[in-house]
Specification:
nine-stranded mixed sheet; elongated; about 25% helix
């Protein structure tokens, strides 16, 4: 049976803070006149010399060395040992003796009855994940499909676009998760964990960091799941430092960080915190960041400016601050979550309301809290680390790519995963060709170019008359604008083994996507909306079913009646048989033959691309991203 670590009271926290203030004010020997009570024992931070060893320090001070840093060692002392040391007359010059404070997962998110809910079977919900991540290696997609349940939130942080650019998907990056443990047998983690001998449980002191029953059951599993959703080839190193109720101690977290460092973790996720400004913990954090290890910490769920530590040390401008990252939560409407802490130390935000992730016992659940915004940023860092040799600069790239939402108390902004990757000068960008009616680009074609470049594509523009099928060679995407003259393009790109997005209705038949009769494809004028028919497919960008406003003012929509092998995602509002957004996957049956690569029929007219609303832009990016990556 797993043992719970008792929590401390509010009175103890006040005493601990008072002790820290006393030590700071005294100078000289840091010897309290009386020790505050502590259920968890004490931490002693001492300077080390060249002749010191862990064994000598343990014997000298009567405790256990839990961290050996650059210039200090940290010892864990029992209450009895601390009292004996305090009364022994031994010199405590330049040392710090402080209670071993309680660390917890963030409090229950304000306004939500529970931090998790909506449990479902894994196989019945996340269809593409039912067999774990191993199944995607042999499929037609180059990367695993993201769960539709998180599609819209991940479009906000531009995860699908980043994965479309990624070559490595986090491969070679080890991410330590310090938490309640994980469900080691969950199918999402099959083949995605660090070697078993590297795992550790600092609650029960064994090598099996398995989730156990308690009020926070599933917390660590959900956190690890979200990291893998963003960086699916990263290796998760599970380290249990909290019991089933989400409680632990600073000593446990320090031990966990030290273990993660010794096992070669490049990123450490800590969706937990303490209200105590603890010297020993800060020194340990500094030791990790001084070695270029990224530590990503949740801000806390009390809805005020009191970020928990270590997140509260972020953004301080010292001690390699770019390696310590604090994360809060926003809603899907891009507003700060009521429960999220905010203030001068809060750097980044990510969606943290009803985020779907793995849950123990072969299930998934919807999670809420800053704990679950945090691993999305951790995953983004892991994704970027695998794409660049400039690993020490990823923190700076993260800062410079964030989207400023204008939210008071958020210093950097919304994490922008594709922007983060693009900041790396050695990123291998995708190559696209844009076929247009005139290389002196119209406003509509200029808008397409801008959008493609914003999500990481290097673009080559080709005139419709001069374009040839060989233009597609070596490209990742062909996009045919609505400004072309159909007869000048005709069947040129019909059989290219490269994804093609077609934005002219009169080429749908030439590309074998529809029939050739007038009733098989055409254009409908005076439109502002489409009807979403299928919001589980990546082409839907996670938007809700039914009518979506995609133009700011009325314009024409392309439509076609598709073959049986197509997936129809959107249609005219007046006729659901007339598809305005549809796709053929590789090998799917088309009007004749099968698709040699993905094909997408997309609705904007040549002028409509200048009128796209945010929803319309989401669908444009989704069309490009799915065509290239299947995600």
């Amino acid at each position: 049976m797993k043992n719970a670590i008792p929590s401390i009271s509010g009175l103890y926290r006040a005493l601990a803070l008072a002790l820290l203030a006393l030590l700071a004010a005294c100078g000289g020997p840091n010897r309290p006149t009386a020790l505050p009570s502590s259920d968890n024992g004490y931490l002693l931070t001492v300077p080390i010399t060249a002749s010191d060893t862990p064994e000598r320090l343990a014997q000298r001070y009567g405790g256990e060395v839990i961290a050996w840093l650059e210039a200090q060692a940290i010892l864990k002392l029992s209450s009895e040992a601390a009292a004996a040391l305090q009364g022994s007359g031994a010199s405590l010059q330049n040392t710090t003796l402080e209670p071993n404070a309680t660390v917890r997962t963030p409090a229950t998110a304000l306004g939500f009855n529970s931090w998790t809910g909506g449990f479902n079977s894994w196989a019945g919900g996340f269809n593409s994940w039912a067999g774990g991540w191993n199944s995607w290696a042999g499929g037609t997609s180059t990367i695993p499909a993201l769960p539709s349940e998180n599609r819209f939130q991940f479009m906000l942080t531009k995860v699908p676009q980043a994965q479309a650019l990624s070559r490595n998907f986090g491969q070679g990056i080890k991410v330590a998760v310090l938490d309640t443990g994980i469900d080691l047998a969950h199918p999402q983690f099959a083949g995605r964990l660090a070697p078993n001998y590297q795992h550790y449980d600092f609650v029960d002191w064994d090598a099996i960091p398995q989730e156990v029953a308690g009020s926070m059951y599933g917390h660590g599993t959900g956190v690890a799941s979200l990291i893998l959703q963003v960086a699916p080839r990263a290796a998760i190193l599970p380290i249990r430092v909290l019991n089933g109720d989400g409680a632990g101690t600073v000593a446990g977290v320090i031990s966990g960080i030290q273990h993660a460092m010794s096992m070669g973790a490049q990123v450490i996720n800590v969706s937990l915190g303490t209200t105590v400004n603890d010297t020993a913990l800060q020194l340990t954090i500094n030791s990790a960041t001084n070695q270029g290890i990224y530590i990503v910490a949740s801000a806390g769920n009390t809805g005020d400016s009191n970020l928990t530590y270590p997140a509260a040390w972020a953004n301080n401008g010292v001690n390699n601050h770019q390696f310590l990252v604090s994360v809060g939560s926003i809603s899907s409407a891009l507003a700060i979550s009521l429960f999220s802490c905010r203030g001068p130390s809060l750097e980044f935000v990510a969606p943290g309301v009803l985020i779907a992730g793995a849950y123990p016992d072969n299930r998934f659940a919807y999670y809420t809290g800053t704990s679950f915004a945090t691993p999305q940023v951790t995953g983004a860092i892991a994704l970027a680390l695998a794409e660049t040799v400039n690993k020490a600069s990823v923190g700076t790239y993260l800062e410079h790519s964030a989207v400023n939402l204008g939210i008071s108390g958020v210093q950097r902004g919304l994490v922008n995963t594709v922007g983060l990757l693009q900041k790396a000068p050695d990123l291998q960008r995708k190559q696209a060709i844009l076929v247009v009616g005139n290389t002196n680009l119209s406003a509509g074609d200029a808008a397409i170019r801008t959008r493609l470049e914003s999500i990481g594509y290097t673009l080559t523009v080709r005139d419709d008359k001069a374009s040839t099928a060989s233009d597609a060679t070596g490209r990742d995407l062909v996009l045919i604008s609505g400004s072309v003259t159909p007869g000048d393009v005709s069947t040129k790109f019909n059989n290219v083994a490269v994804p093609v997005v077609v934005m002219h209705w009169d080429l749908f038949d030439e590309m074998r996507m529809t029939g050739s009769k007038s009733g098989d494809r055409n254009t409908q004028t005076g439109q502002t909306q489409v009807t979403l028919l299928n919001n589980t497919h990546p082409l839907a960008a996670g938007l809700p079913l039914y009518n979506s406003t995609i133009y700011s003012s009325s314009d024409a929509l392309n439509w076609g009646k598709v073959a049986s092998g197509a997936v129809s995602v959107a249609s005219l509002t007046s006729d659901t048989t007339r598809s305005t957004l549809f796709g053929y996957d590789i090998g799917a049956a088309m009007q004749s033959g099968t698709a040699p690569a993905r094909r997408v029929g997309f609705f904007p007219s040549s002028t409509g691309t200048t009128r796209l609303t945010n929803m319309g832009l989401h669908l444009l990016v989704a069309a490009i991203t799915w065509a290239v990556s299947g995600n």
